[in-house]
Amino acid sequence: MAMRAIASRKTLGGGLSLLGLRASGLGLAQLQCRGLQTFTLPDLPYDYGALEPAISAEIMKLHHQKHHQTYVTNYNKALEQLDDAINKGDAPAVVKLQSTLKFNGGGHINHSVFWKNLAPSREGGGEPPHGSLGWAIDTHFGSWEALIKKMNTEGAALQGSGWVWLGLDKEFKRLVVETTANQDPLVTKGACLVPLIGIDVWEHAYYLQYKNVRPDYLKNIWSVINWKYASEVYQKESA
Ligand SMILES: [Fe+2]
């Protein structure tokens, strides 16, 4: 889960807790402890136009304010419905909510990582990774250029909407390139996988600027990839 997302959580009022008290018979103190957590849209660490010419300000604004916000809104709504269903002991309703939670929760998680994966060129965006991540990339993929080529190929070939990832497999201490469909987070491909770089290949991420030419978007996005962030995550998670 993105650190920014965790930091931005807030607790809803006590109305749902009281509903739970009636339904489940839990003590009031316990219910206060299990207050429902919801999420808010994280701020971007740069201006909407700061990633031009790789990604236009219009795309960034819509992507952040409309698309990501919608995932957050629908995730919170589903969480409230889940809380209600659990309190009522409504097992079918709990199961029915799983795909909505996965889609919108995944959308929130993925985009929270994506914004941190980007940085303006004047702030180091696009600068190749050094140190331990740079060495690991050379070891696993041959070179940084070979990794980019692999991710671009897999990202371009992904059918429909989804994400292409550079991840760390913490169990086997190795780097992996994976794709996920829709808004599935990387963790759905393996419990030990941690995202280092995630690139959104949904059309909403590039169509206004690149039309249907996803490969051009993938080619240009590397000029604003924040390898410093990826290196920090790698060092922390591989220690
Ligand atoms: Fe997106």
From TrEMBL:
Question: Briefly, what is this protein's role?
Answer: Destroys radicals which are normally produced within the cells and which are toxic to biological systems. Destroys superoxide anion radicals which are normally produced within the cells and which are toxic to biological systems.
Q: Cross-referenced Gene3D superfamilies, in alphabetical order?
A: Fe,Mn superoxide dismutase (SOD) domain, Iron/manganese superoxide dismutase, C-terminal domain
Q: What is its EC number?
A: 1.15.1.1
State its location(s): Mitochondrion matrix
Q: Which positions, given as ranges, span the membrane?
A: none
Please report the name of this protein according to its UniProt entry: Superoxide dismutase
Cellular component GO terms, alphabetical: mitochondrial matrix
Which species? Dillenia turbinata
